Amino acid sequence: MVRHGATEQRAVEPADGAWSDRLRHVARLYGDAVGIIDTLRIQGWSEDGLTIPQMRLLWALRDEDGLPVGALAEQLGVNPSTITGHVDRLVRQDLVRREEDAGDRRIVRNYLTETGETTVGALRRIAGAYMMNILKRLDDVQLVRLELALEDLNHAAAQSQRDDA
Question: Which of 17, 71, 75, 156 fits as disulfide partner to 67, beta carbons 3.0 to 4.6 Å?
Answer without folding.
Answer: 71
